[in-house]
Protein: Putative 5'-nucleotidase C-terminal domain-containing protein
Amino acid sequence: MTRIQPAAETIEEDWFKKAINTSDIDIFVLTGHNPVKPGIPKAESTFPLLMETLRKARPEIPVQGFGGHTHRRDFHVYDEKSSAIESGKYCDTVGWISLDGISSKSLSSRATEPELSSTPDNDADLATLDDTTCPKNKTFNMDLTRRYLDWNRLTFSYHASGSQDQFNTTSGLNVSQQIDDARNSQNLTHVYGCAPRTYCISCKPSGDEGNVYTLVKTAAAATVVDPNRASKSRMIIVNRGAIRYDLVKGPFTVDDSYIVCPYTNTFKYIPDVPYSLASKVLDYMIDQKTRRKRSMTVDTISSQLLGYDECDNPSPHNATSLPKPKSLFGRILETDTATPGYTTCDDLGNDGDDTPHSTIPDYPQEPYVQATAQFPSGGEPEKTDLIFSDFLAGRVVSALNSFKPETEYTSSDVTLYLPTNFTTNNFIPSYASMAWQDNIDNCKIEE
Structure:
């Protein structure tokens, strides 16, 4: 049996204390699916605790962490000898870091490695981007370089050794063919509809036609409906985190449906809730979510990180053409036209992105959205079916009871609204099959 042990318990165990006090340690490398910044809302990362423990026990030994979870590019300096990097989303960013200046008997006894004279020193003036809004606000007493590389073929071929004209290998081409065969065998290329525009998670404000949550409300209202209760007024609550990526203009396929909304949560409901109560639930849940975030320590957090638990950073479609790459070891190169993408500001400044981009707007979004259907024209219903993703049931019941109803709601009032084979992964594809059939046989990918 596997048991997940809290870090606070681990650091008190004898094996851990013995391990970190071994004499011939050059560097501690800390890896984990944890945010690297202290005080990240919701996550309560254990990195700061582990860093503090290691630094107290062995202050002379550097610590380098590799974190994750927030889907952000970020680098945090804890002190002059300890730091950690986060490298965006999976298949989105490659994080790269080098450290020089480690004092070590074991290292000094080895053969000297060839020195890269062009490797930048973190204390040097690397950034040519004139941006005083992102100063380097931490010091580090070792030579350190970090880069965030865009995950695409151009980046990989540019930084690979040898000829970029011969970047393909027989093995690589075989793997590509196997992936293509698997996609076809799983019917991932089936087209549900032709998306008339791109819908993004945060590059458009809430309520804008180009905001994906505007689409969520439209799609949920049209498709999340029990035929036996179709005439009943209904309110449908979906959490923001159900949507994991932008939906791109062009063919909307089975593959895209998993990219945009991979989760398979069922829809549950409480029937015939008085509208006077149901109409307050969304605001209550949003308020509770906001209170929980504000209760965390956020003094070290960039405002960019407050929406950390969603994949709301640039998506592949934002780069309509890839910019000329720059050297991994050189200064940032200017490009004729910077395409939209990551513009990272971390503890070491703004020179970490391997490819310069123009900034994409990042509008805040509410943690939940609500769709309505079958409401009286120009009025409000007396009662409504209150529908929600299954895991929100407890929050919805708590919200209703906070309004002091005549009879308290319990989990027994919650029941399945639609069959279990219709989930949060299905409602957008169902809508696409209904509403996006124009040009489906000649649907062009956005360029």
